[in-house]
Amino acid sequence: MQSVKQQPGLRPLPLAIAAALLCAGAAQAQEAADSGKLESVVVTANKRAQNLQDVPASITVLGDQLLQRANVRELDDIPNLSPALTLSYGTQPGNFSINMRGVGTFSLGIGVEADVAVIVDDIPLGMQANAFKDLADVNRIEVLKGPQSTLFGKSSIAGALNITTKPIGGPVKVNTTALVTEDDEWRAGVSVSGAVSDTFRMRVAASKTSYKGTLNNLTSGGKLNGSKGENLNAKFEWRPTEDLTFTLAPRYNRTEKFCCTNAFSSMTPGGLYRNAPQLPQSVVLRDININPENRDIRNDYPTGGKFHDWGAGLKIEYALGGGHTLSSISSYSKYHMDDYQDNDDTDIDILQYLTLPDGSPTKMHGGLYQYGVFNVKSTTQEFRLTSPDKGALRYVVGLWYGKNDLNRELTKAPLIFNYGTSYGADAWNVNKAIYGQGNWDFRPDTSLIAGARFNDEDTGYNFRRYTVPPQTFAQTEFYTKSDSNSSHTWKLGLEHRLNRDAMVYGTVSTGHKGVAYDLTSGFTAALAKKDAVPAESARSYELGWKQSLWDNRAMFSMALFRTNFRNFQQSAGFFDYDGIFRTALNSLGGLRTQGVEVEGSVRVTRELQLNGSFAYTEATITEFENGPCYNVLNDAGTGSTPGPGCFKSPKFNNTNVQNLAGKTLPNAPKVKINLGGQYDIPLATQGFNAFVAGSTRFQSRTQFSLNQDPMTLQGAYSITNLSFGLSDKKGRYKASLFVNNLFDKHYAAGLNNSIANGTWSPKAPNVPRAVNTTSWLPPRDFARYFGARLDMTF
What we know:
With 794 residues, the protein is mainly beta. The chain contains five helices and 45 strands.
């Protein structure tokens, strides 16, 4: 691996924790201080409140205590706690991807829905990019693995993140939190929550966060790959009668991400930028020491995205006779993002030295850059009938309506070489569904699980092509298309209770995601004439076992799973000859993810609680004949040639392709382990107690590129975090000091490799030597850092 150091396996401390946690897992259970037992964990994965150990599904639950102990701030922190999750990063939040069991949709266009849904208080986000912000006022995150289409709809074909915000408390209380680190991160938050009267309760929470970033911009003296955010969340609950409850939940968020820039980790000496003699590496990248751990860059144009969203949900619950509950859940939200990127990675006035294809000077000044906007408007309405929790038949049935309107405007300028594009796109989808799922106890110890969903969907797009600056603005092309399709998904299973402490289950479920459109800069008239990219489908098999031990002092779960996908929608990225990163939307014929997951928690003593999880996942392509190729240096050293396994295929217009059947999906490590725990130290003579907490995570090597480039392999690594502190016995304050990445293990969240592209490969009359560049994306905890946190309650 060229960009970061190969990492060894678990150090002695993590091994000690691993030995102690042989039967432990990541399902976070909270302490019951009086009994010394684990407290039950309640989840809403089946749209009703249930004990986690009674739900026949593989679910990782990240509760409030664990989220606080791990100092979770944003979605980027969650894969550190759940082995089923990884995140893939693009050039801005609009093309990030959440991957579940190795499966997630990476796409730069608004015409492709995500494979993993994000639901906040029963309301799904209209665009996955909206999830990449502060997890403000969150109480619990349920990681639901495998297809969830029956209950959560078409955008959850690979899984879902079911997020619940903090509930309204009893008496009015004020909570504050503050965090600071030695590498320029700080957070501050305050909430007021409680009963105002016998019929009205409320919660209002506000927070502000900032982190400068991991890269040094030598041009501005600032940093990149950080973020800052402001959040305001509220809940107002009115209960005019015993049977009727209204809950209004407005929210507002403003976030700026200074991302997602890669730093050069290696470069062949002697390159000229765009073959211009005036632009050698020593000038364009002056003062940058290019090495595998380089974090210095030069940008003179902003990079990242600035977005805000606001909206509200209204939930009305009415208790019917016989224990049934009728619910209405309505929502409206708007999301807007301005994104921008420095595409030449320099601070030089490069255009004055470049020439047009005919050899004439550009007569321009400046550099290469892009800017654009995303707009998303979402409306949802759900009616739900929930049966009583007791009885032989328990079920939930509902009606669903959702409408998403998305807009993307993007300009890359100026028009030079093959660089430069400008387009606008609108995409819409209207979804109507009826669903139901239930359990029938046909024996005292055995239940039948059955569910189904019927969807009717209307989708479509408008696509506009514009002239590129410095040309006068004008629309040059316009295309439009609409589609309608209906689908159904289902779930069947059996649950058998061996005794009051043990349960085994087996389920079969299906998933569906509608057609897609490749609404990116590569969209052409030829693509407009073609049918939409086919709909995605999945079928999943899962066998599981859930067990409580030692009078509820320990619990664990284990699941074996296999999911087969057809017509998987995936964008593949590549660098063309002119060094421009482009993508194309593909429909992979098939892929499969399979493996085993183990999770659990153990209360060793009243003072010591341990938890952890393990996942072995094989996410494999089963059918993709026209997969993208990677390049290698040619024999003469003057250019690039397709890598091993690539060939010109008459079936695909004599383009270079490779058959990727049997290859791994990108960013899908086979092994992930999370282990942790907390030891409370009672101090009988003091008004406070002490505690020590630790966690470690291990990840096997990871391929970041769909084309299987061996230069984009991240080696295995382990990261260990420690914290210790004091907590008031009356619950008034908790203070802690922490160190993350204790052993200072450097690793990458993304790797790139490019050989002989037009950016750095000189040609005649200069020496025609190919230049190979590699770059890396350092994550938040790529290096050791220290911090302190204080939580107070009044």
